[in-house]
Amino acid sequence: MSLNRRSFLKLAGVAGLLPQSGWAADPPIRAKPDFTLHIGAGLVELAPEHIVSTTLYNGQFPGPLLRFKEGQRVVVDIFNDTDTPELVHWHGQWLPSDVDGASEEGSPFVPPHGMQQVSFVPRPSGFRFYHTHVGAGGDLNRGTYTGQAGPIYIEPKQDPGAYDREVFLVLKEFGPTFSRGGDMAMDMLVGAPDEALKRMGTLADETSTRKTKGFEVGYDLFSINGQMLGHSEPVRVKQGERVLFHVLNASATEIRSLALPGHTFKVVALDGNPVPNPADVPVLWLGTAERVSALVEMKNPGVWVMGDVADDDRQHGMGIVVAYANKAGAPRWSHPKASRWDYTLFGSRGVLPSAPHETIEMTIVKRNAALNGFNQWTINGQAFSMEAMQPVFKVHQGRRYRLKFLNASDDVHPLHLHRHSFELTRFAGRPTAGILKDVVMLGGFQELEVDFVADNPGPTLFHCHQQLHMDFGFMALLDYASS
Ligand SMILES: [Cu+2]
Question: Taking the model in full, what pTM does it have?
């Protein structure tokens, strides 16, 4: 599949078969850009002894924070200074298919050593981000394994502003390598595995002809805002301040956690969307591409390590120092008490979600090491084909759809729907309402339901945001019925 995708890119690039969009087909009217992005090779100094070379936006990691105003059109010039076609995806926004930045939806590639001007009206307000949307397959120098990610904040027309300061944190690993390590069972989510799904997963494994485990990706280097713990400027705070942390997991494949000893996080927004019920938690958990905005009241003076609860990852860089004014000494870490992540904590109380017009079921199965040693992923028995590029679901404008996911694998999958927000309606066996997201973690052998309203016509991509999973089958294309 990786080979196929790469040959497709090559073919598409050489033969001029790139999907054409309205604005690309018309003679371009060059406007003065509000923002300019340069995609190119560069260095990230994670620490003096760890300087990595990768593809970056504007020569930096993370890419520059782009501040947009809700509803106010922006023009962005994108220059691709690399030898390969690129795509910039505007994650979490309600954009037309041709500017969303996914080739599967018909967005054109930014040609190698070429440029593209895009123009769109940013919405909805809140914490979004931008990242590359090209497939990587077996190439760890492509896709989200690179440093092509940056935060976006779309300022709402009215800002509640119940905080003293905002701090953006982008969590990201570097130095990816493959291993046959197999899957690490992750149990950070509430909910119990479903026996029928377990049996389905076991059956898939037993009928697999490959007995070795499929490849997984691991990392050597971990960072927050492109610097390893101990090598960055601390987040400097004052006692009594309310600091709003906007946390983005820009990992290609990993689920991340974040804790600040002696403090709690009040989660106020998920994926940039205010939650109905802000609630306190000791640890934040974020699947790939998820965002959490959380308020921390600074009331425990000292010098602290804010970092991942996984000791190994934190010791290899996944953390940042939080230092109170006039406090000195070695940063302190202490392990938070065990807790599991439960989205429903932040949902409306005593409110049930509206009934959908239709339910679309998706059963997810792993075919062990089926593709040259890589696991292949299927939705309802089908792995996504870049060649066919066929929409598998047709939706009607104005209708409310329920997506019901059944995970017959032990992996946690960060599921992402493009160009729409969805409402979480069932998680860990419990109904919920009021939580709007664009990525949500589906637990191993668990079920999950989300609803979305078909209100943004055009081809729409659904996929697992784990780069290895999406590259090896875990995608589906939705399209709108013509009438
Ligand atoms: Cu996945």
Answer: 0.93
